[in-house]
From TrEMBL, chains A, B, C:
<protein>
    <submittedName>
        <fullName>Sulfide reductase</fullName>
    </submittedName>
</protein>
<dbReference type="InterPro" id="IPR027396">
    <property type="entry name" value="DsrEFH-like"/>
</dbReference>
<dbReference type="Pfam" id="PF13686">
    <property type="entry name" value="DrsE_2"/>
</dbReference>
<dbReference type="InterPro" id="IPR032836">
    <property type="entry name" value="DsrE2-like"/>
</dbReference>
Length: 158, 158, 158
């Protein structure tokens, strides 16, 4: 049986999402199965900037949508963000090293058959619709996450 | 033997505490044993607002107690807290979905026999007394946490 | 075979680093093998304040170095830092309890043969040189981390 890694992606930070997706890509390259469960702010990472819509949303959900980052490249840093200036500096340093951006690691994970789970309750509370997020995403509840995590060889909360 | 999940609750954020307690409740519902070890800011979650006392505390401990959130519902968000406004917005969105508040998930976990461990060193440094926190809490050291975590099927640092 | 704990040290916070290092020291005291993998802000913890240098660095790397905390004792708190005042208060409370500082837990972990891994990609992007960090550090890639983590009995992302 192949080994398995399970990542709970909770945070909506550029740097933490980068850490999670680098691990996901590296694991697939050594034939480890990967499941990523996106909950709360973690869902920001999966927003498709071209499919964001305010249809069928309450006033609160519209406000929340407006203040939320619009997909992977729009995420802030967890530290030294300095209103976006620190983030820009970090991305320049990534470019100087010819390293990929977050969106490239996300594309890599999608190509390499990482399993994408989205938290049902978070989706409902935040008012995100499935069609606004990446198409690979399967919406599941906490029990489905737990069963998958319990049978994995390692689990991280990111 | 039943499966077991171990959560190290470090953060004192409403949203992260919610994630931990939803997992704890869901795990119990599928017969998974759960141990939660509360350290540092995680202890805020277990303060009983009616039992907070400044007796036998140093000046620093009193200051620390005053600046600390007073129990589960008083915790801030890890993101978009906006001095409490973002937190209120999120709680309204939770209510709109008829979803439970953090305090209800905490009550659920207590009823479902989740094991509550509190970090001895954190209690001493922060000056929290056992009688100020929920009565189920058992104060243990890091080694007791480690032994419990090592024999679990999954461990998360939240 | 001895049991093994693997910690991914991502955050550069005094309190979270303290949690990780207390666990590492406690684990060694009960004969559990420990590997710590430092990535992103986690590398700040390992800077030697006496060996920080701007030689061979780009303008961005110099700026980044200047804004980064200079080793363990210089790290901020993840919460209630209040521009350093909250951090000072916490350290006073640690002293009142005759508990060790972060730097002492780091020394303990080094003496007790904790394995120190540093993330190659983070080092390159942030422009940190090996000679600026503690000498025990071995620079490895994400796959080396993953292989070590997958064979461990528990893994945490801190």
């Amino acid at each position: 049986m192949p080994e398995e890694m399970n990542l709970l992606m909770f945070s909506g930070d550029y740097d933490k999402a980068m850490a999670g997706l680098i691990l996901a890509n590296s694991a697939r390259e050594i034939d480890v199965d990967v499941t990523m469960f996106f909950s709360f702010w973690g869902l920001w990472l999966l927003r498709d900037p071209d499919k964001i819509s305010n249809e069928d949303k309450t006033v609160y959900e519209k406000m929340f949508s407006t203040f939320s980052p619009k997909g992977a490249e729009d995420l802030p840093l967890s530290k030294m963000n300095f209103n976006g200036v620190g983030k820009k500096l970090l991305v320049e340093m990534i470019d100087d090293n010819h390293a990929p951006h977050l969106i490239h690691f996300l594309k890599g994970a999608r190509k390499k058959n990482v399993k994408f789970y989205g938290c049902k309750l978070s989706m409902e509370i935040m008012g995100f619709k499935e069609e606004e997020l990446i198409p690979e995403l399967e919406i599941v509840d906490a029990k489905t996450y737990l069963k998958s995590a319990l049978q994995s060889n390692m689990q991280l909360f990111i």
